[in-house]
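To: structure desk
From: M.T.
Subject: fold request, one chain
Message: Could you run this one when you get a chance? Sequence is below, nothing fancy, just the single chain.
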Amino acid sequence: MGGAEKQLSNVARREAKAGWRVQILVLGDQWDETLVRMAEPCSVTTLPKRPRGLARIRALVEKLETEDWPLVAGQLFSGNLYAVAAATRTGRKALVFEGGLEPWKRWYHLTACRWYWRRAELIEVNSRAVGGMVLARGGPEPKLRIIYNGIEAGRPVMDDERGEARRKLGLTAGPVVVMVANLRYPKDPRTTVEATARLKGTYPGIRTLLVGDGHLRPAIEDLVQELGLGEEVRLLGRTDDVRGVLAAADVFCHSSLSEGLPNAVIEAQAAGIPCVVSRAGGSTELVTDDDRGLVFEISDVEGCTAAISRMLEHPREARRMAENSRAWVVRELSFERNLELHRRLYEEALGIS
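Reply: Done. C-alpha cells follow.
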C-alpha cells in the first residue's frame, strides 16, 4: 500500500463526498480491496489489461465521450501518458501529476514526459523538489502547480496509546525506532539497520521496527543476520494499522535515496513522533532541520546514528521538534486545504473563472 495510492484514494473520497463527479481508473490489475474501500463513495474501475496500449486508450476515449467527462487527470508516468493521449483524441482537457524523483528506466521515458507535459493544461507536483526536477528536464514553468499531500491528522499519540501499542507488539523496556517504507528502491532501509547496529551498545534493548515489504527484504534479512541484530531489528511486513506501529515509537527514521513527498513521514509527524530523515528531495520540505526534526545526509550511517541518538538523549528537545512538526502538518497539510487547492486546479484547467 504505497503512499501515492493511499493519497489518491483519500483525495478522491473527499472529492466524491463534496459532490464532485469523480472516478478512479486503474491501469492493469485491480487495486487492493483496502484501497478500494478507502476511496468510497468514489468508484474504482479497471481499464483493460491486455492488450496494452491501444485497447486502453480506446476504452478511455469511449468512457470520456459516452460519459461526457470534461477533464482527465493522469497519475505518474503511465497514467499521464494515457490521460493525455485520450484527451488529445477527444478534445478534452488533461492534467498530469508527477510525484517522484526516481530516474526513468527506459531511454524513451523522458521524451514521453516532455510530450505529455507540453500537451497537458497543467502539471501538478507534490513538492518543490519534484517541481525542480520537472523544470530541469524541460517542463514548462508556467504550467507548474504545487499541491502538498493532505492528511487527516487526528490526535497525537499519548502515553496510554504508546503503552498499549508496545504491549501488542511484545516490546519490553528500551527505545523504539520505526521506519515505514516499502522495501524497494529508492528506499534505503540498510542505513537505518546499520545505524541500529551502532546504537545497540549505547542503548541496551533498542528495537527497530521496519514496516513494509518488497524486493529488498531478503537483502535486509541477510544484513540483520550479518550484524547480529536478530533481537534488535524486526521486519513486520505490510500492515493496515500503520498508526498502531507508529504509536510504539520513540523516534521515526526515514532513510531514503530519493523522495517526492513521503506520506510515511507526514503520518509520523501528524502522530507527534520525533522524526529524523535523509536529505532526500521533498523530505526536507516536511522536516526542517532542528525545528521540525533532524536531517542527515543520504546513505550517511554515522549521521543517521547521531540523529537518532540525539532524539533519544534529549527527550525534551525531541518533544519540541515533534510538536512543531505536528502543528505545521495540521496547519498546512489538512485535507480541507488540499480539497480547496484541487478545486482551484481543476477550475483553472477547465478555464472556469
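Reply (cont.): The CA atoms of residues 139 and 204 lie 51 Å apart. Let me know if you need anything else for the meeting.
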